[in-house]
Amino acid sequence: MNQTVVSYLAQYEFFDFLVNLFGKNQSLLSFLIYLIFALLIVGMCATIGGLGTYAERKISADIQARIGPNRVGPYGLLQFLADGVKMIVKEDVMPFSADKMLFYLAPILCLVGVFATLAVLPFAGGFIMTDLNVGIFYLVAISSLVGVGVFLGGYASNSKWSMLGGMRGASQIISYEIPVTISILAITLLAGGMGFGTIVGSQGGLPHQWFLLHNPFAFIAFFVYFVGALAETNRAPFDLPEAESELVSGYHTEYTGMRFGFFALAEYIEVFVVCGVAAALFLGGYNIPGLKLDLLPLQAVQFTVFMTKTLALYYVVIWVRWTFPRLRVDQLMSICWKYLTPISIFNLVGCAIWMVAFNGKSIADIIFGGH
Amino acid sequence: MFLQFLFIASAFLTLACTIAVLVTKNLMHSCVFLLGTLIGVAGLYATLGADFVAVTQIMVYMGGVVILMLFAVMLTGGKDFVSRAQTLLGLPATMGNKWTYGLGLLVGVVFLLTNVKLLSNIITTLPTAEINNDFPSTVSRLGHLLVKDHVLAFEISSVLLLGALVGAAIIARPRKHN
Predict the structure, then answer these.
(1) pLDDT, tens digit, for every residue of B67-82?
(2) Nearest CA in chain A to B50
(3) Domain made up of B1-81: CATH architecture
(4) Nearest to A342 by CA among A244, A238, A224
Protein backbone atom coordinates (compact mmCIF):
# COMPACT_ATOMS: atom_id res chain seq x y z
CA MET A 1 0.00 0.00 0.00
CA ASN A 2 1.23 3.46 -0.83
CA GLN A 3 1.80 5.96 1.92
CA THR A 4 -0.65 8.83 1.66
CA VAL A 5 -1.72 11.85 3.65
CA VAL A 6 -4.45 9.77 5.26
CA SER A 7 -2.17 6.90 6.28
CA TYR A 8 0.31 9.43 7.65
CA LEU A 9 -2.30 11.14 9.82
CA ALA A 10 -3.65 7.76 10.93
CA GLN A 11 -0.47 7.19 12.98
CA TYR A 12 -1.46 9.89 15.43
CA GLU A 13 -3.92 9.65 18.29
CA PHE A 14 -6.12 12.59 17.41
CA PHE A 15 -7.05 10.74 14.24
CA ASP A 16 -8.96 8.16 16.29
CA PHE A 17 -11.38 10.88 17.27
CA LEU A 18 -12.17 11.54 13.60
CA VAL A 19 -12.44 7.82 12.90
CA ASN A 20 -14.98 7.46 15.70
CA LEU A 21 -16.83 10.54 14.50
CA PHE A 22 -17.37 9.12 11.02
CA GLY A 23 -18.12 5.57 12.19
CA LYS A 24 -18.94 3.48 9.15
CA ASN A 25 -18.22 6.16 6.56
CA GLN A 26 -14.45 5.68 6.57
CA SER A 27 -14.10 6.18 2.83
CA LEU A 28 -15.95 9.49 3.18
CA LEU A 29 -13.41 10.58 5.80
CA SER A 30 -10.50 9.67 3.50
CA PHE A 31 -12.19 11.46 0.64
CA LEU A 32 -12.67 14.61 2.74
CA ILE A 33 -9.05 14.63 3.88
CA TYR A 34 -7.86 14.18 0.30
CA LEU A 35 -10.21 16.94 -0.83
CA ILE A 36 -8.96 19.39 1.80
CA PHE A 37 -5.32 18.65 0.98
CA ALA A 38 -5.93 18.83 -2.77
CA LEU A 39 -7.60 22.22 -2.43
CA LEU A 40 -4.82 23.38 -0.14
CA ILE A 41 -2.02 22.30 -2.47
CA VAL A 42 -3.70 23.54 -5.66
CA GLY A 43 -4.54 26.86 -4.02
CA MET A 44 -1.01 27.24 -2.71
CA CYS A 45 0.58 26.38 -6.04
CA ALA A 46 -1.77 28.69 -7.94
CA THR A 47 -0.69 31.49 -5.60
CA ILE A 48 2.94 30.55 -6.16
CA GLY A 49 2.30 30.61 -9.92
CA GLY A 50 0.76 34.07 -9.57
CA LEU A 51 3.59 35.31 -7.42
CA GLY A 52 5.92 33.77 -10.00
CA THR A 53 4.76 36.32 -12.56
CA TYR A 54 5.45 39.06 -10.01
CA ALA A 55 8.89 37.61 -9.22
CA GLU A 56 9.65 37.34 -12.91
CA ARG A 57 8.94 41.04 -13.46
CA LYS A 58 10.66 42.19 -10.32
CA ILE A 59 13.82 40.15 -10.93
CA SER A 60 13.96 41.07 -14.62
CA ALA A 61 13.57 44.71 -13.60
CA ASP A 62 16.42 44.26 -11.14
CA ILE A 63 18.64 42.70 -13.80
CA GLN A 64 17.85 45.47 -16.26
CA ALA A 65 18.30 48.22 -13.64
CA ARG A 66 14.60 49.15 -13.57
CA ILE A 67 12.17 49.28 -10.65
CA GLY A 68 9.41 46.97 -11.87
CA PRO A 69 5.82 46.84 -10.58
CA ASN A 70 5.53 48.95 -7.41
CA ARG A 71 2.04 50.49 -7.42
CA VAL A 72 -0.41 47.78 -6.34
CA GLY A 73 0.02 46.87 -2.69
CA PRO A 74 3.30 46.97 -0.77
CA TYR A 75 6.24 46.68 -3.20
CA GLY A 76 3.70 45.94 -5.93
CA LEU A 77 3.06 42.52 -4.39
CA LEU A 78 -0.63 42.46 -5.35
CA GLN A 79 0.11 43.09 -9.01
CA PHE A 80 -0.71 39.49 -9.91
CA LEU A 81 -4.17 39.78 -8.33
CA ALA A 82 -4.84 42.90 -10.38
CA ASP A 83 -3.71 41.02 -13.50
CA GLY A 84 -5.96 38.12 -12.60
CA VAL A 85 -9.00 40.38 -12.21
CA LYS A 86 -8.14 42.05 -15.51
CA MET A 87 -7.94 38.69 -17.26
CA ILE A 88 -11.25 37.49 -15.87
CA VAL A 89 -13.19 40.58 -16.94
CA LYS A 90 -11.58 40.74 -20.39
CA GLU A 91 -13.61 39.85 -23.47
CA ASP A 92 -13.25 36.19 -24.44
CA VAL A 93 -12.30 36.43 -28.12
CA MET A 94 -12.68 33.35 -30.29
CA PRO A 95 -11.08 33.47 -33.75
CA PHE A 96 -13.69 33.07 -36.49
CA SER A 97 -12.21 29.96 -38.11
CA ALA A 98 -10.90 28.36 -34.93
CA ASP A 99 -11.65 24.76 -34.04
CA LYS A 100 -14.02 25.55 -31.15
CA MET A 101 -13.80 22.35 -29.14
CA LEU A 102 -10.03 22.08 -29.27
CA PHE A 103 -9.67 25.81 -28.64
CA TYR A 104 -11.56 25.46 -25.36
CA LEU A 105 -9.87 22.19 -24.45
CA ALA A 106 -6.22 23.17 -24.93
CA PRO A 107 -5.67 25.52 -21.94
CA ILE A 108 -7.55 23.13 -19.68
CA LEU A 109 -5.34 20.21 -20.76
CA CYS A 110 -2.27 22.28 -19.92
CA LEU A 111 -3.56 23.19 -16.49
CA VAL A 112 -4.78 19.66 -15.71
CA GLY A 113 -1.42 18.19 -16.70
CA VAL A 114 0.39 20.52 -14.32
CA PHE A 115 -2.05 20.18 -11.41
CA ALA A 116 -1.99 16.38 -11.69
CA THR A 117 1.74 16.41 -11.02
CA LEU A 118 1.17 18.11 -7.65
CA ALA A 119 -0.30 14.87 -6.30
CA VAL A 120 3.14 13.32 -5.87
CA LEU A 121 5.28 16.38 -5.17
CA PRO A 122 6.92 15.82 -1.74
CA PHE A 123 6.42 19.05 0.20
CA ALA A 124 7.24 17.35 3.50
CA GLY A 125 7.46 13.86 4.99
CA GLY A 126 3.73 13.58 5.55
CA PHE A 127 2.53 16.52 3.50
CA ILE A 128 2.55 14.62 0.21
CA MET A 129 -0.79 13.73 -1.31
CA THR A 130 0.20 10.19 -2.16
CA ASP A 131 3.66 8.66 -2.15
CA LEU A 132 3.09 6.43 -5.19
CA ASN A 133 5.77 3.78 -5.64
CA VAL A 134 5.94 4.89 -9.26
CA GLY A 135 5.94 8.56 -8.19
CA ILE A 136 8.57 10.12 -10.42
CA PHE A 137 7.50 8.02 -13.40
CA TYR A 138 3.91 9.17 -12.89
CA LEU A 139 5.07 12.78 -12.76
CA VAL A 140 7.01 12.51 -16.01
CA ALA A 141 4.12 10.72 -17.72
CA ILE A 142 1.28 12.99 -16.66
CA SER A 143 3.18 16.19 -17.43
CA SER A 144 3.26 15.14 -21.10
CA LEU A 145 -0.38 16.28 -21.14
CA VAL A 146 1.05 19.80 -21.24
CA GLY A 147 2.69 18.99 -24.57
CA VAL A 148 -0.66 17.88 -25.99
CA GLY A 149 -2.26 21.09 -24.68
CA VAL A 150 0.41 23.29 -26.24
CA PHE A 151 0.13 21.50 -29.57
CA LEU A 152 -3.68 21.63 -29.64
CA GLY A 153 -3.65 25.29 -28.61
CA GLY A 154 -1.41 26.01 -31.57
CA TYR A 155 -3.47 23.94 -33.99
CA ALA A 156 -6.94 25.05 -32.91
CA SER A 157 -6.24 28.80 -33.18
CA ASN A 158 -5.92 28.45 -36.96
CA SER A 159 -3.22 31.07 -37.11
CA LYS A 160 0.25 30.74 -38.61
CA TRP A 161 2.01 32.06 -35.53
CA SER A 162 0.12 29.73 -33.23
CA MET A 163 0.67 26.76 -35.50
CA LEU A 164 4.42 27.26 -35.66
CA GLY A 165 4.57 27.81 -31.92
CA GLY A 166 2.51 24.72 -31.19
CA MET A 167 4.62 22.51 -33.47
CA ARG A 168 7.83 23.80 -31.96
CA GLY A 169 6.44 23.33 -28.47
CA ALA A 170 5.34 19.75 -29.03
CA SER A 171 8.55 18.66 -30.77
CA GLN A 172 10.65 20.36 -28.10
CA ILE A 173 8.75 18.78 -25.23
CA ILE A 174 8.94 15.29 -26.79
CA SER A 175 12.66 15.61 -27.54
CA TYR A 176 13.75 16.94 -24.18
CA GLU A 177 11.72 14.33 -22.34
CA ILE A 178 14.41 11.80 -23.25
CA PRO A 179 17.51 13.32 -21.52
CA VAL A 180 15.35 14.41 -18.58
CA THR A 181 13.89 10.93 -18.10
CA ILE A 182 17.26 9.22 -18.41
CA SER A 183 18.78 11.62 -15.86
CA ILE A 184 15.92 10.83 -13.50
CA LEU A 185 16.54 7.13 -14.15
CA ALA A 186 20.13 7.52 -12.93
CA ILE A 187 18.83 8.92 -9.63
CA THR A 188 16.26 6.11 -9.41
CA LEU A 189 19.19 3.74 -9.65
CA LEU A 190 20.96 5.41 -6.72
CA ALA A 191 17.84 5.50 -4.56
CA GLY A 192 16.58 2.04 -5.46
CA GLY A 193 13.00 3.15 -5.96
CA MET A 194 10.78 5.46 -7.95
CA GLY A 195 8.67 6.77 -5.08
CA PHE A 196 9.50 10.24 -3.82
CA GLY A 197 9.49 8.99 -0.25
CA THR A 198 12.19 6.43 -1.11
CA ILE A 199 14.26 8.91 -3.11
CA VAL A 200 14.18 11.68 -0.52
CA GLY A 201 14.51 9.22 2.34
CA SER A 202 17.77 7.80 1.00
CA GLN A 203 19.36 11.24 1.05
CA GLY A 204 20.34 13.29 4.08
CA GLY A 205 19.93 16.88 5.14
CA LEU A 206 23.52 17.99 4.68
CA PRO A 207 24.99 18.71 1.23
CA HIS A 208 27.44 15.77 1.24
CA GLN A 209 24.49 13.41 1.71
CA TRP A 210 22.61 14.76 -1.30
CA PHE A 211 22.47 12.83 -4.56
CA LEU A 212 23.97 15.89 -6.24
CA LEU A 213 27.29 15.13 -4.54
CA HIS A 214 26.85 11.37 -4.40
CA ASN A 215 29.12 10.73 -7.36
CA PRO A 216 30.43 12.67 -10.39
CA PHE A 217 27.82 11.20 -12.73
CA ALA A 218 24.92 12.32 -10.57
CA PHE A 219 26.49 15.77 -10.46
CA ILE A 220 26.43 15.97 -14.27
CA ALA A 221 22.95 14.44 -14.33
CA PHE A 222 21.66 17.37 -12.27
CA PHE A 223 22.74 19.86 -14.92
CA VAL A 224 21.39 17.72 -17.75
CA TYR A 225 18.10 17.51 -15.89
CA PHE A 226 18.00 21.23 -15.24
CA VAL A 227 18.72 22.22 -18.85
CA GLY A 228 16.20 19.68 -20.11
CA ALA A 229 13.61 20.90 -17.63
CA LEU A 230 14.07 24.49 -18.80
CA ALA A 231 13.36 23.30 -22.34
CA GLU A 232 10.38 21.20 -21.28
CA THR A 233 8.73 24.14 -19.55
CA ASN A 234 9.37 26.38 -22.58
CA ARG A 235 11.54 28.73 -20.57
CA ALA A 236 14.23 30.92 -22.05
CA PRO A 237 16.76 30.27 -23.54
CA PHE A 238 14.49 27.56 -24.97
CA ASP A 239 11.30 29.65 -25.27
CA LEU A 240 11.01 29.11 -29.02
CA PRO A 241 7.32 28.10 -28.88
CA GLU A 242 6.48 31.60 -27.67
CA ALA A 243 9.39 33.55 -29.16
CA GLU A 244 7.88 37.02 -29.13
CA SER A 245 10.34 38.46 -31.64
CA GLU A 246 9.40 35.95 -34.37
CA LEU A 247 6.02 34.39 -33.50
CA VAL A 248 4.12 37.27 -31.82
CA SER A 249 3.54 35.09 -28.77
CA GLY A 250 3.55 31.57 -30.15
CA TYR A 251 0.89 29.00 -29.38
CA HIS A 252 -1.20 31.36 -27.25
CA THR A 253 -1.25 34.27 -29.71
CA GLU A 254 -5.02 34.00 -30.27
CA TYR A 255 -5.96 33.45 -26.65
CA THR A 256 -7.33 36.24 -24.50
CA GLY A 257 -8.61 36.65 -20.99
CA MET A 258 -8.58 33.76 -18.59
CA ARG A 259 -7.77 31.18 -21.30
CA PHE A 260 -4.48 32.93 -21.83
CA GLY A 261 -4.23 33.12 -18.04
CA PHE A 262 -4.52 29.32 -17.84
CA PHE A 263 -1.57 28.91 -20.21
CA ALA A 264 0.53 31.43 -18.28
CA LEU A 265 -0.42 29.93 -14.92
CA ALA A 266 0.33 26.41 -16.17
CA GLU A 267 3.77 27.52 -17.29
CA TYR A 268 4.66 29.17 -13.99
CA ILE A 269 3.37 26.29 -11.89
CA GLU A 270 5.21 23.82 -14.10
CA VAL A 271 8.43 25.70 -13.47
CA PHE A 272 7.72 25.40 -9.75
CA VAL A 273 7.02 21.66 -10.07
CA VAL A 274 10.18 21.08 -12.10
CA CYS A 275 12.26 22.98 -9.52
CA GLY A 276 10.59 20.99 -6.75
CA VAL A 277 11.48 17.73 -8.48
CA ALA A 278 15.08 18.90 -8.89
CA ALA A 279 15.19 19.76 -5.19
CA ALA A 280 13.72 16.39 -4.22
CA LEU A 281 15.88 14.31 -6.53
CA PHE A 282 19.23 16.03 -6.24
CA LEU A 283 19.21 18.50 -3.36
CA GLY A 284 18.00 16.36 -0.50
CA GLY A 285 14.35 17.39 -0.68
CA TYR A 286 12.68 18.12 2.62
CA ASN A 287 15.37 16.58 4.84
CA ILE A 288 16.21 18.84 7.76
CA PRO A 289 20.02 19.22 8.05
CA GLY A 290 21.36 17.03 10.83
CA LEU A 291 17.98 15.69 11.94
CA LYS A 292 16.32 12.47 10.81
CA LEU A 293 12.93 12.56 12.49
CA ASP A 294 9.43 12.51 11.07
CA LEU A 295 7.21 14.08 13.72
CA LEU A 296 4.10 16.12 13.09
CA PRO A 297 5.45 19.48 14.40
CA LEU A 298 8.54 19.08 12.23
CA GLN A 299 6.41 19.03 9.08
CA ALA A 300 6.46 22.82 8.99
CA VAL A 301 10.26 22.86 9.17
CA GLN A 302 10.53 20.22 6.44
CA PHE A 303 8.12 22.21 4.33
CA THR A 304 10.25 25.34 4.79
CA VAL A 305 13.42 23.47 3.82
CA PHE A 306 11.80 22.11 0.68
CA MET A 307 10.37 25.48 -0.30
CA THR A 308 13.69 27.25 0.27
CA LYS A 309 15.49 24.89 -2.11
CA THR A 310 12.71 25.00 -4.69
CA LEU A 311 12.38 28.77 -4.71
CA ALA A 312 16.16 29.19 -4.93
CA LEU A 313 16.05 27.09 -8.10
CA TYR A 314 13.05 29.13 -9.26
CA TYR A 315 15.18 32.23 -8.91
CA VAL A 316 17.91 30.62 -11.04
CA VAL A 317 15.35 29.80 -13.75
CA ILE A 318 14.22 33.44 -13.92
CA TRP A 319 17.81 34.64 -13.76
CA VAL A 320 18.74 32.39 -16.71
CA ARG A 321 15.82 33.72 -18.73
CA TRP A 322 16.95 37.34 -18.46
CA THR A 323 20.64 36.59 -19.00
CA PHE A 324 20.95 34.27 -22.01
CA PRO A 325 19.90 34.90 -25.62
CA ARG A 326 17.39 32.59 -27.29
CA LEU A 327 18.60 29.58 -29.29
CA ARG A 328 17.75 28.76 -32.91
CA VAL A 329 15.58 25.72 -33.65
CA ASP A 330 18.45 23.69 -35.10
CA GLN A 331 20.70 24.56 -32.16
CA LEU A 332 17.91 23.49 -29.81
CA MET A 333 17.60 20.10 -31.48
CA SER A 334 21.34 19.52 -31.76
CA ILE A 335 21.81 20.32 -28.06
CA CYS A 336 19.17 17.77 -27.19
CA TRP A 337 20.12 14.91 -29.50
CA LYS A 338 23.87 15.38 -29.95
CA TYR A 339 24.87 16.48 -26.48
CA LEU A 340 22.32 16.00 -23.70
CA THR A 341 21.03 12.55 -24.71
CA PRO A 342 24.49 10.90 -25.06
CA ILE A 343 25.67 12.60 -21.85
CA SER A 344 22.62 11.38 -19.95
CA ILE A 345 23.08 7.81 -21.21
CA PHE A 346 26.75 8.01 -20.19
CA ASN A 347 25.61 9.20 -16.75
CA LEU A 348 23.18 6.32 -16.42
CA VAL A 349 25.85 3.74 -17.22
CA GLY A 350 28.34 5.59 -15.00
CA CYS A 351 25.94 5.57 -12.04
CA ALA A 352 25.29 1.84 -12.53
CA ILE A 353 29.03 1.09 -12.59
CA TRP A 354 29.58 3.31 -9.53
CA MET A 355 26.88 1.48 -7.59
CA VAL A 356 28.51 -1.87 -8.33
CA ALA A 357 32.14 -0.76 -7.92
CA PHE A 358 31.76 1.15 -4.65
CA ASN A 359 28.86 -0.80 -3.23
CA GLY A 360 26.53 2.18 -3.33
CA LYS A 361 28.72 4.47 -1.23
CA SER A 362 28.88 8.18 -1.94
CA ILE A 363 32.12 10.13 -2.38
CA ALA A 364 31.86 11.50 1.15
CA ASP A 365 31.40 7.99 2.55
CA ILE A 366 34.49 6.77 0.74
CA ILE A 367 36.69 9.70 1.82
CA PHE A 368 35.52 10.03 5.44
CA GLY A 369 34.73 6.35 5.89
CA GLY A 370 31.03 6.73 6.64
CA HIS A 371 28.46 4.00 6.91
CA MET B 1 -16.35 2.04 -2.53
CA PHE B 2 -14.39 5.03 -3.73
CA LEU B 3 -12.24 2.71 -5.84
CA GLN B 4 -15.33 1.16 -7.41
CA PHE B 5 -16.65 4.59 -8.23
CA LEU B 6 -13.35 5.45 -9.92
CA PHE B 7 -13.44 2.15 -11.83
CA ILE B 8 -16.93 2.85 -13.14
CA ALA B 9 -15.98 6.42 -14.03
CA SER B 10 -12.92 5.19 -15.97
CA ALA B 11 -15.01 2.58 -17.75
CA PHE B 12 -17.57 5.20 -18.75
CA LEU B 13 -14.82 7.56 -19.93
CA THR B 14 -13.31 4.77 -22.03
CA LEU B 15 -16.62 3.76 -23.61
CA ALA B 16 -17.89 7.29 -24.22
CA CYS B 17 -14.63 8.42 -25.80
CA THR B 18 -14.41 5.27 -27.93
CA ILE B 19 -17.88 5.91 -29.31
CA ALA B 20 -16.94 9.55 -29.90
CA VAL B 21 -13.80 8.47 -31.78
CA LEU B 22 -15.98 6.40 -34.12
CA VAL B 23 -18.78 8.94 -34.54
CA THR B 24 -16.92 12.21 -35.01
CA LYS B 25 -16.04 13.16 -38.58
CA ASN B 26 -13.12 15.43 -37.81
CA LEU B 27 -9.92 13.37 -37.64
CA MET B 28 -8.30 15.82 -35.24
CA HIS B 29 -11.24 15.53 -32.85
CA SER B 30 -11.18 11.76 -32.98
CA CYS B 31 -7.48 11.88 -32.06
CA VAL B 32 -8.34 13.94 -29.00
CA PHE B 33 -11.15 11.55 -28.06
CA LEU B 34 -8.68 8.70 -28.45
CA LEU B 35 -6.63 10.48 -25.80
CA GLY B 36 -9.65 10.26 -23.50
CA THR B 37 -10.02 6.54 -24.26
CA LEU B 38 -6.39 5.87 -23.43
CA ILE B 39 -6.62 7.83 -20.17
CA GLY B 40 -9.73 5.83 -19.32
CA VAL B 41 -7.88 2.55 -19.90
CA ALA B 42 -5.03 3.83 -17.72
CA GLY B 43 -7.64 4.56 -15.04
CA LEU B 44 -8.92 0.97 -15.32
CA TYR B 45 -5.39 -0.38 -14.85
CA ALA B 46 -4.80 1.92 -11.88
CA THR B 47 -8.00 0.93 -10.10
CA LEU B 48 -7.19 -2.75 -10.64
CA GLY B 49 -3.86 -2.36 -8.83
CA ALA B 50 -1.53 -2.37 -11.85
CA ASP B 51 -0.07 1.05 -11.15
CA PHE B 52 3.08 0.62 -13.20
CA VAL B 53 1.14 -0.51 -16.27
CA ALA B 54 -1.23 2.43 -15.84
CA VAL B 55 1.57 4.96 -15.75
CA THR B 56 3.33 3.28 -18.68
CA GLN B 57 0.07 3.49 -20.61
CA ILE B 58 -0.08 7.24 -19.97
CA MET B 59 3.61 7.70 -20.76
CA VAL B 60 3.65 5.77 -24.02
CA TYR B 61 0.28 6.64 -25.48
CA MET B 62 -0.38 10.13 -24.19
CA GLY B 63 3.16 11.44 -24.33
CA GLY B 64 4.18 9.74 -27.54
CA VAL B 65 1.63 8.02 -29.73
CA VAL B 66 -1.18 10.58 -29.54
CA ILE B 67 1.16 13.52 -30.18
CA LEU B 68 2.64 11.66 -33.15
CA MET B 69 -0.86 10.95 -34.47
CA LEU B 70 -1.80 14.61 -34.06
CA PHE B 71 1.32 15.59 -35.98
CA ALA B 72 0.58 13.09 -38.74
CA VAL B 73 -3.06 14.19 -39.06
CA MET B 74 -2.10 17.84 -39.09
CA LEU B 75 0.64 17.42 -41.69
CA THR B 76 -1.64 15.44 -43.98
CA GLY B 77 -4.41 18.01 -43.75
CA GLY B 78 -6.78 16.44 -41.20
CA LYS B 79 -10.24 17.87 -41.51
CA ASP B 80 -10.14 18.52 -45.27
CA PHE B 81 -10.57 14.81 -45.94
CA VAL B 82 -14.17 14.58 -44.81
CA SER B 83 -15.90 12.47 -47.42
CA ARG B 84 -19.48 13.34 -48.37
CA ALA B 85 -20.38 10.02 -49.96
CA GLN B 86 -22.10 7.64 -47.57
CA THR B 87 -23.07 4.00 -47.74
CA LEU B 88 -24.46 1.40 -45.41
CA LEU B 89 -25.31 2.63 -41.89
CA GLY B 90 -24.57 6.22 -42.92
CA LEU B 91 -20.82 5.65 -42.78
CA PRO B 92 -18.47 7.35 -45.26
CA ALA B 93 -17.85 5.40 -48.49
CA THR B 94 -14.09 5.45 -47.91
CA MET B 95 -14.48 3.19 -44.89
CA GLY B 96 -15.48 0.12 -46.88
CA ASN B 97 -18.33 -1.76 -48.58
CA LYS B 98 -20.71 -4.50 -47.41
CA TRP B 99 -18.04 -7.21 -47.78
CA THR B 100 -15.55 -5.45 -45.53
CA TYR B 101 -18.25 -4.71 -42.97
CA GLY B 102 -19.39 -8.34 -43.09
CA LEU B 103 -15.86 -9.61 -42.61
CA GLY B 104 -15.28 -7.16 -39.77
CA LEU B 105 -18.46 -8.32 -38.05
CA LEU B 106 -17.44 -11.99 -38.40
CA VAL B 107 -13.99 -11.32 -36.97
CA GLY B 108 -15.53 -9.32 -34.14
CA VAL B 109 -17.95 -12.11 -33.22
CA VAL B 110 -15.21 -14.78 -33.28
CA PHE B 111 -12.96 -12.55 -31.19
CA LEU B 112 -15.72 -11.89 -28.67
CA LEU B 113 -16.59 -15.57 -28.31
CA THR B 114 -12.92 -16.50 -27.85
CA ASN B 115 -12.52 -13.85 -25.18
CA VAL B 116 -15.65 -14.97 -23.35
CA LYS B 117 -14.40 -18.56 -23.42
CA LEU B 118 -10.97 -17.50 -22.11
CA LEU B 119 -12.29 -15.15 -19.43
CA SER B 120 -15.09 -17.36 -18.13
CA ASN B 121 -12.65 -19.32 -15.93
CA ILE B 122 -11.23 -16.16 -14.43
CA ILE B 123 -14.62 -14.70 -13.62
CA THR B 124 -15.80 -17.81 -11.76
CA THR B 125 -12.60 -18.08 -9.70
CA LEU B 126 -12.07 -14.39 -9.05
CA PRO B 127 -12.36 -14.14 -5.23
CA THR B 128 -9.65 -16.70 -4.53
CA ALA B 129 -6.96 -14.77 -6.41
CA GLU B 130 -4.00 -14.31 -4.12
CA ILE B 131 -1.55 -11.44 -4.19
CA ASN B 132 2.12 -12.29 -3.94
CA ASN B 133 3.53 -10.12 -1.17
CA ASP B 134 7.22 -10.97 -1.59
CA PHE B 135 7.84 -7.68 -3.31
CA PRO B 136 7.14 -4.20 -1.94
CA SER B 137 5.62 -2.96 -5.20
CA THR B 138 4.62 -4.08 -8.67
CA VAL B 139 7.64 -2.20 -10.07
CA SER B 140 10.25 -4.34 -8.35
CA ARG B 141 8.27 -7.48 -9.16
CA LEU B 142 8.15 -6.52 -12.82
CA GLY B 143 11.88 -5.79 -12.75
CA HIS B 144 12.69 -9.19 -11.27
CA LEU B 145 10.51 -10.97 -13.81
CA LEU B 146 11.99 -9.02 -16.72
CA VAL B 147 15.63 -9.78 -15.97
CA LYS B 148 15.12 -13.34 -14.71
CA ASP B 149 12.27 -15.28 -16.29
CA HIS B 150 11.70 -13.22 -19.40
CA VAL B 151 15.19 -11.97 -20.12
CA LEU B 152 15.21 -13.40 -23.67
CA ALA B 153 12.00 -11.61 -24.65
CA PHE B 154 13.32 -8.45 -23.01
CA GLU B 155 16.59 -8.57 -24.95
CA ILE B 156 14.94 -9.40 -28.27
CA SER B 157 12.46 -6.54 -27.95
CA SER B 158 15.22 -4.11 -26.98
CA VAL B 159 17.25 -5.13 -30.06
CA LEU B 160 14.12 -4.68 -32.17
CA LEU B 161 13.57 -1.18 -30.75
CA LEU B 162 17.22 -0.28 -31.29
CA GLY B 163 16.89 -1.43 -34.89
CA ALA B 164 13.79 0.73 -35.33
CA LEU B 165 15.64 3.71 -33.88
CA VAL B 166 18.63 3.29 -36.17
CA GLY B 167 16.34 2.71 -39.14
CA ALA B 168 14.41 5.90 -38.42
CA ALA B 169 17.67 7.83 -38.17
CA ILE B 170 18.86 6.43 -41.52
CA ILE B 171 15.58 7.29 -43.26
CA ALA B 172 15.52 10.81 -41.82
CA ARG B 173 19.19 11.49 -42.62
CA PRO B 174 19.76 14.07 -45.37
CA ARG B 175 21.11 12.40 -48.50
CA LYS B 176 24.37 13.52 -49.99
CA HIS B 177 24.21 14.60 -53.64
CA ASN B 178 27.41 14.04 -55.54
Answers:
(1) 888 888 877 765 555 5
(2) A134
(3) Up-down Bundle (1.20)
(4) A224
